[in-house]
Amino acid sequence: MLQKTYEAFAVTIEDKVAHIRMNRPEAMNTMNKAFWNELPAIVRDIDMNARARCIVISSTGKHFSAGMDLAVFGSGEGGGAADRYVAAEAFRSNIRQIQSSFNALEEARMPVLFALHGGVIGGAIDMISAGDIRWCTKDAFFTIMETNIAMTADVGTFPRLQRYIPEGWVKEMAYTGRRIDAAKAKEIGLVNDVFDTHEACVAHVLATAKEITTKDPLTVTGCKTLINYGRDHNTADTLDYIGVWNAGMIPPPHMQEAFAARAEKRDPEFPDLMKLRDTPM
Fold first, then answer.
1. Residue 3 forms beta bridges with which residues?
2. Which among 10, 155, 192, 206 would be 20 to 30 A from 199, CA to CA?
3. What is the pLDDT of residues 2-22, one digit of tens each?
4. For residue 135, is it left (φ>0), alpha (ψ between -120 and 50) or beta?
């Protein structure tokens, strides 16, 4: 088992499951500067080095996350009266860097699962929208909080959330800043199921992650890649890409192992994904 603690996170990797826990309960797990730097580094390290076959993200304390730490907005450098157009361009670039932190979740080759509880507020909606599957406790609530502080959500909520829930619900949450509860989140498809306690929710998500690790990692990453591709392309293009993927990467030896393991009533043994280069050759 590997364990590592960061300013905003605690990470455990065991039995091919990486469990990333948000670890600032005293601050309601608000997303400070360390959060934005550490999360993509953690996820990309797991992905690039194939350290796990599935990633679970949960949190600690009363709330999953109260969203952006407002101190982040005031952390810009430089002084004097900058030209407002130049300043706007710099702000756009800063937003893109923040957006890339959540892009890492979507770009990871392995599934990213969320166990949610308490408040899932503001930037936390952006975060969970970039994952693959979400579950929550019955006390959970979800709010596009940015509207309530006179800004437009800008880290991924709008392009991603409408992929999971009806557009009308995205607009109601966005226009009003209202919260929805766990029951409504399940009804509209934002979460797969609701649990009585945080412990039960996390246990279920970890068990699901463990089940995913028993499947062929190449097949699982193929599923994630092709589902995400199909979400953004038409049926004809997606079918063509699936054909190209399977022509190059359908694995007969892995299929034979899967059949043999079922016949012999044992767990199959599949190779892990390869490590990736982080620099050009």
1. 12
2. 155
3. 999 999 999 999 999 999 999
4. beta
Which structural domains are found in the chain, ordered by start?
Answer: 2-213 (3.90.226.10), 217-264 (no CATH)
- Whether the CB-CB separation of 153 and 104 falls below 8 Å is answered with no
Cα(212)–Cα(45) distance, integer angstroms: 20
Residue that the structure tokens 């507020």 belong to: 121
CA distances from 140 to 27, 126, 201 (A): 18, 16, 11
- Measured CA to CA, the distance from residue 214 to residue 270 in angstroms comes to 8
Mean pLDDT by 10 residues, the chain (281 residues): 96 98 97 96 97 98 94 59 84 89 96 98 96 98 95 91 94 97 98 98 98 97 96 96 95 96 96 87 58
pLDDT of residue 82: 73
Residue 75, both tokens: 């952390």
R_g of the chain, CA atoms, integer Å:
20
Residue corresponding to tokens 């810009």: 76
Looking up tokens 């952390």, which residue turns up? 75
* 142 HSE (CA, 13 A, CB side): 30
Which whole-number Å values give the CA distances from 231 to 128, 135, 162, 223, 250, in the listed order? 17, 21, 11, 12, 21
Can you give the pTM of this predicted structure? 0.93
Decide if 29 contacts 64 (C-beta within 8 A). yes
**Other CB atoms within 10 A of residue 77 CB:** 5
Number of other CB atoms surrounding residue 151 within 10 Å: 12
Antiparallel, parallel or unpaired: β 141-143 and 179-181:
antiparallel
